[in-house]
Amino acid sequence: xxxxxxxxxxxxxxxxxxxxxxxxxxxxxxxxxxxxxxxxxxxxxxxxxxxxxxxxxxxxxxxxxxxxxxxxxxxxxxxx
Length: 80
Prior knowledge:
- α3 runs antiparallel to α4.
- With 80 residues, this protein is mainly alpha-helical.
- It has helices at 3-8, 13-16, 33-46, 55-75.
- The two termini are 17 Å apart.
- It has four helices and no strands.
């Protein structure tokens, strides 16, 4: 999700976080981010918190793929 979409969406993880809950943000320009997201997916499925076809899992895979594309655009100067 784009930054502005996360902030504007009352149902986003960011906005649902509790006041005293820690957050960790991954940026598209971080080359480790897509692998970290995919590792999170594997662990969520292993823990039984998600199934492979769940919407949250599909969204995470899509995010990882988009980050890989954006990182190239950021590196090439296409995204400010």
